[in-house]
Amino acid sequence: MRTLRGLWLIGVLGLAACGRGPGVRTAPDPAALLARARNEFRHGKFTKALLLFQRLTFELGPGQAELADVRYHLAECYFQTGDRVQAAHEFRQVADQFPESPWAPLALLRAGDANLRLWRKPDLDPSYGEAALAIYQELAGRYPGTDPAARASLHVRQLKEQFAEKAYRTGTYYLRRWRAYDSAIIYFKDVIASYPGTSRVPDALLRLVEIYRAINYTEEVRETCAHLQRYYPQTPGLAQRCPAEASGGAP
User: Fold this and answer.
1) Looking at the domain that runs over 30-110, which CATH code has it been given?
2) What pTM does this model have?
3) Which of 126, 212, 118, 221 is nearest to 170 (CA)?
4) How far apart are CA 84 and CA 242, in angstroms?
5) I need a surface site. Which of 31, 52, 81, 90 has the fewest CB within 10 A?
6) Does residue 4 surpass a pLDDT of 70?
7) Beta-carbon contacts of residue 152 (< 8 Å; ≥ 6 apart)
């Protein structure tokens, strides 16, 4: 009897030493999980990588250095799988929660990129475009001299051109369709004041000359023509719209 009882105890202890039986799983190693996630990401398997990075956000503690890396790549997975709204949010979280991390400036860049992609039709609601512009400008202020800031500056120029084009087209619409001179003037002046250096500025100035002539604003014609002749002398149609005497005498 003692022999049987002894054998039973040995068997129980043996099972305990083997991990409490074959049906119990051990906790995953975060380092191994991160390696798997990175491998899936490198091979373009973003849906699988996303699930692994999501899991890692729970496995890693808030003070672990890898968490910024994990959160950034989680955001990138959202971006690559087409969920640009969630991607923009996650990138923003990386920049705000880990501002000293090397991932922070890149995350701001990608947050801007996600909003830029969401602005699919510039002629419609510009909210996403405005958000992208604000983020790119924030990046330049928070992380000047970085490569992401340099890349963002290219997008800033692109966005300003798009906003200038949008305002110019709206002004032209009011001018051509409704002869709503006051409204058209507001939009053309917005192009000039808000987006200096863009390609639509001289065109907006020419439109103002056209409107001022139509409503007999002689002094405004003279001043606007003088501005064009001084700063944009190569503007097509300038000689016809603004004869040389317009800047110094009656138009």
Assistant:
1) 1.25.40.10
2) 0.82
3) 126
4) 47
5) 31
6) no
7) 108, 109, 112, 136, 139, 140
Answer yes or no: are the C-beta atoms of 194 and 163 closer than 8 Å: yes
Calpha distance 200→190 (Å, rounded): 11
Burial class (CB in 10 A: 0-12, 13-18, 19+), 172: middle
State both tokens at 234: 């190569």
C-alpha distance from residue 25 to each of 21, 28, 89, 249 (Å):
9, 9, 34, 91
As a whole number of angstroms, the distance between CA 182 and CA 30 comes to: 64
Which of 3.40.190.150, 1.10.10.10, 3.30.70.260, 1.25.40.10 would CATH assign to domain 165-251?
A: 1.25.40.10
Mean pLDDT confidence for 222-246: 92
Amino acid identity for residue 249 in this structure:
G
DSSP single-letter state for residue 217: -
Token pair in block for residue 55:
């899991």
Domain extent listing, the chain: 30-110, 165-251
165-251 matches 30-110 in CATH topology? yes
Query: Contacts from 147-152 at CB under 8 Å and sequence distance 24+?
Result: 147/105, 148/105, 148/106, 148/108, 148/109, 149/105, 149/109, 151/109, 152/108, 152/109, 152/112
Structure token digits, residue 114: 């996600």
Burial status of residue 217 (CB atoms within 10 A of its CB: 0-12, 13-18, 19 or more):
middle
